[in-house]
Protein: MOSC N-terminal beta barrel domain-containing protein
Amino acid sequence: MPYLAKILLYPIKSLDGVEVEQARILATGALENDREFAIFDGQGKVVNGKRHSKIHLLRSQFSILNRTISLQIPNQESQQFHLDEERQALAATLSNFFGFAVILEQNSLMGFPDDQNSPGPTVVSTATLEEVASWFPGLTVDEIRRRMRVNVEIGGVQPFWEDRLFNEQGDVVSFKVGDTCFFGINPCQRCVVPTRNPDSGEAYPNFQKIFVQRREASLPNGVALSHFNHFFRLSVNTRLPTSETGKILQIGDEIEILSAHS
Structure:
């Protein structure tokens, strides 16, 4: 039986994640504390790995309960900040690191997902991450996990099992995680971030080319091909009905596909 094997939250968009045992569903379908904060420059543009590879050099550890971040900047001692009470001090430290002024914005209702039309948790199977890691000599499963930055991992299934959680364009797939209902929408389009070392920002040679070739060759039979205008896609974007607000995802929850519909 497929089951919920991991939950990963990313309290500040583009910084390190934190593994948790459970997560609460917000009214928008997003996970509480996931991408709740994002860094913005003076022009109102998000400061992320797509636009600023230097961000990979930052290490961060979060305490969800205490609402704190321990930030490690290269060649400096670790600094701790309270995300609500010391946000300006954190922004000032980040501004010094980047070399330009930044601010830290908060959205506690939906966070700052890449796909605002499908702000639910992204979903992948652990076996998929293991298979992808096998395509790249020298890369571990955990490094692929950190490159892909997916929220929910499914255990007990074969690689690319999650590709059955979306249907042809215009349709959705209903599935349950424990007693929480999800709508699977589409395979997540990847950006430049997975091509880079999550610690240094250094690019892996021909990462995207290798990935695309192997991903196309590994597509399961019957996969909904209408979403694949290219094959640099991995994990599934989701939405959740408002009826699921406040429900809790818990490690070990069983996963069941219900139906596909428009």
